[in-house]
Structures are given as C-alpha cells and as structure tokens.
Amino acid sequence: MNVEIQRTSQPGALPEGDLGFGVHFTDHMAVAEYEEGKGWLRPRVQPRGPITLDPAASGLQYGQSIFEGLKVFRGTDGKPFCFRPLDHNRRFATSANRLCMPSVDAELWMGLVRALVQTDEKFVPSKPNTALYLRPTLIGTEGFLGVRPAKKYLFYVLASPVGSYWGAGGPRAVRLWIEEHFVRAVHGGMGFAKTGGNYAASLKAAEEAKKRGLDQVLWLDGVHRTHIEEIGTMNVFVRTPEGLFTPPLGDTILPGVTRDTVLTLAKGMGIKAEERPISVKELEAWSKKGELLEMFGAGTAAVITPIAELVSEHGSIKVGNGGVGELGQKFLHDIAALQRGEAPDAHGWRVAL
To answer: What is the pTM assigned to this prediction?
Structure first.
C-alpha cells in the first residue's frame, strides 16, 4: 500500500522515566478520509495535531464515533511487532457496521499501522511492562442536522508510548461496586460495539463508585440486574474449584481480544474454561463456601485486573484471599511473554511491522 509520509519539522523523543498510560504521544498520526461513492482517500502519516471538524459533524451531533485499542511491543530481537492487530480490525468492522459507518479493510488498517510505527519507531519503548499503545478512531465528519448516517468520515490512528497500567507497583486487587441502578447495555443496543457513547454512559456509575471508596463498577444485565456482564471497561472472569467461567458473548458484551486470549491459553493449559451466565447469587454462595477462589478483569490496557471484593447495598462478597490470584497472575505473565516475543507464538498472534 502506498502511504504518503509527511514528517514533522519538530521531532520529539521518547520520554524518560515512568510513561504512565495515554499521557504521551508520538510525533505523527496516520490518517485517511472516506467519501461515499469514492471510498478511502489519501492514506497518509502526518504530524500529530488538531483536526478541523464542521460543528454539525455527525461524530459530534449523533455520536458516530468508534475506536480500538491495541499494542505494539519491541521484541527480544529489538524489532517492533503488533499483538493480534487483525482481531482488533475485525472488531472495529463490527462496531462500524452497528453504527452504519464504513469498514476499514485489513490492507488499509495494516498499511497505516505499519507506516505509523515505522515512522515513529523511536517511540516504541523496550523496558519491561511498556508498549506503544495504538488508538485507531473513526468519526463521522459530514456536517448536517438530519438524522441519518454521514457520507464522509475520518479514520486516524494515534500512538502513545505507555508503561504499566498499574505503575511501578504492579497489579493490585480492586474493589468493585455492584451496580444495580445504572446499566451499561441492553439487548438490541450497542454493548458489543466499541463506541464512545458506551463509555460516556459508564462514567456516572464509575464516579459514584469512587465516591463510595471503591475502584470501579461490576455491571449487571440491563433487565433483571441479576447476572454479571463486565467490570468497568473490561471482560470478567470467575474461578472456582470447578473451573474458569466468563459470561457468554452477546449484543451486550464487548468481545474482548484479551478475553479470547485468556480462554485460548486456559484451554491450552488444560484448564476447564467455560462461557456461561453467572449470577450474583452464585458469587455469594461460592464466597460463603470459600469456593470463590479468584475473579479478574481482562482488557488491552491493564491486561489482567485482580478483584478482591464486590460491594453492594446488600453487603460484601469477598473474593479469594483478597489479593492477586495465582491464575490471574499466571495469565498476566504468560500474555506478557507472548507480547514481548519471549514465548513461542503458537497462534500467530504477533505480526511484524
């Protein structure tokens, strides 16, 4: 693919010290425009900077906006590679279809990702627990006030060098509020799409949980409020003596790439890993019997988030010993080894850039 490269006249450098998460950006961003009847136009890498939007753009007025999050790592050979980029591309296409937006085909996706990473390779960190986080984004740019899908779109990819989501101290077990009032998604809605509106809808509940002294929210099903679905912005796993369980995918749950990675690795380890509905009452019963051995979230940013306790208006549900569970810790270690090229890639998840 022919991608035009427009280099910045003011190059920066990879920041020293703790990178944090999502606070630093590379010099450039990858960009392409879409126009109905013409397709994708001018794929290019250009200096990162503000974009100009019509005040009536559908991305602003009607929320036609989706995104993805994936990571680039520097391997043991010093070369950069991306982890499961085509799986993220397929999910991006699913999100785009739900919001009546044009899909970004794999060739354009990989062409722009590869061109951006090659242009800004000096920003790919090499220290342990670091990565170059990519944020592909698609927004409607046509200015109009009638309610319909836009005819013009902007696709762009931002790149941010990041450290561990948890900082220098490593992962810690979090405490969650069981949310029984607000809902994240309902059947027939957009819960399976990675769209900005889903995240905006989650902010109020998350802020209320933090006011209670908790870290995040455990989302329940949007109708009966009896079964768990996700935690914060991550998929959720439960471990008991019977095996590892996670809620089944549907139109209310985001099909996480890390979720799929955990399930695939678990099966390869001989661990019973089952997708099935999980009720709050089951969690309570397991906890009382000492069988709620472990819970953790799975997502691209933090990879694995251990859970120590679930709190609601009705009381508290203790998880395991209140610390980082052994299985979640193993998944965190094994996924990191795969991502950094320190373990054999039996599934073809690493893509050279």
So the answer is: 0.96
